[in-house]
Write a structure and sequence with these properties.
Blueprint (H helix, E strand, L loop, with lengths): L3 E2 L8 E2 L1 H13 L8 E8 L5 E8 L7 E5 L2 E5 L1 H7 L3 E7 L2 E7 L5 E2 L5 E3 L1
Protein name: Iron-sulfur cluster insertion protein ErpA
GO molecular function: 2 iron, 2 sulfur cluster binding; 4 iron, 4 sulfur cluster binding; iron ion binding
Pfam families: Fe-S_biosyn (PF01521)
């Protein structure tokens, strides 16, 4: 299997140290090998603004994925999703309203009121 690894010329997907730590804890809790497995970040149709983010753990990247590594976390992005999220930052926020992962996407032109979906 060949995976494309991000280079310095790509608009890279960044991961905050807090997000990486949280994701790695979850990966290990699932019994996955953090040296091979990773977090898949993708875009899907849905939500009131048209597109929404999805995340899941995968055992390994797909053949055409771009693979990013930040703070020990591997992030897999498929080519179709990349055009919507290139240059984004994955962060983890916690507060009174709850805790969770958040994508800071510079390509977004509008978001729905709840922040769950977006348009580019």
């Amino acid at each position: 299997m060949s995976t494309e690894t991000a280079t310095g010329t790509d608009p890279e997907i960044q991961v905050s140290p807090t997000a990486a730590e949280q994701a790695l804890d979850l990966l290990e809790g699932e019994g996955l090998d953090t040296g091979i497995a990773g977090l898949r970040l993708f875009v899907q149709q849905g939500g009131c603004a048209g597109l929404s983010y999805g995340m899941r753990f995968d055992d390994e990247p797909e053949e055409d994925d771009t693979v990013y590594e930040h703070h020990g976390l591997r992030v897999f992005v498929d080519p179709a999703s990349m055009r919507y999220i290139e240059g984004s930052v994955l962060d983890y926020e916690s507060g009174l309203q709850g805790a969770g992962f958040h994508v800071e996407n510079p390509n977004v032109v509008s978001e729905c009121g709840c922040g769950e979906s977006f348009r580019t």
